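Hey,
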Amino acid sequence: MTNFLKGESYIKAHISTIILGVLLVVLSCCSLFVGVIDVTPGELFSGDIEALEIFIISRLPRLLAILCTGIGMSGAGLIMQQLCSNKFISPTTGATISSAQFGILLALLFIPGSTLWSRAIFAFITAVLGTWVFVWFIQRIKFKDVVMVPLVGIMFGNVIGGITNYLAYKYEMTQALSSWLVGHFSMVLKGRYEIVWITLPLVILAFIFANHFNIVGLGKDFSKNLGVPYNLVLFSGLTISAMITAGIVVVGSISYIGLIVPNIVAMYKGDKIRGTLVDTALLGAVFVLACDMIGRVAIFPYELPIELIVGILGSLIFIALLFYRLKHGRRAIRLGNGTGCNGAVSNIEGGVSK
């Protein structure tokens, strides 16, 4: 009887994780068989060579790239929001994506015949440096609120984007760069996407150091009192987030994921990274996968870029989140008996704690 009650309590505490996991499996199975060329399970099991080639070369790599993108971008957003103590910070509003795109342009300019990994290295370096500069800058702003910090990030990102576009026009690299500026999965094939796998070990690393990130998010003085090296953990976490973002830029710029997904999960599960990272990763993967499928079937047999679908749905969801906060404040959305809900979107502070 005791074991039964423990099992029931465990299910109630993780009901959202179970639902998201099941939904992800269902959508993943459906995604494998949605496309211009019909591929059915029967053809695969019967050993149809053409169907197997399409499945292995295109459908499966695309699915894996989508899952890595959703998990990585949502996880990167969660890390940045926790470290910066601001729920409106994300790779998009923190200039991380713009910096990574600038790195890719540099690779195209200085190493025209560079491989995907060579371009990724440039993107890693510039994404990390751009994120560090942004955080260093906002740490020195004395009067900051929840809205001003992401606005500074957006302006900083636009400055970097402007420099990127200027260099692209000057050296006639606009067409070569355009494929990196709009998020899409239509070009994802076997051998051209594997770099996104780097997001998984980085997300696992973030989970291992989740408690340190939570402590740093409470402020510099609090971290010192607990013996946690504030600056080291802060910039290590930001580096992880920047590297995740840079690895995903190979499929293009995809906004809103790192912004809205962590906020949605925090509304019913709280702010602790270790308690919310799994749900954040699952919801991010489900959201990206659903948007990709919508883009594939909306004007079938043609395909809309996922950035367009994510932009429309993401903006609507984000507006809904703003209205919810204005009306309910910190109140959490409770699931079941409220187990595991330890607060709504709490600790919404402006900028990085000093």
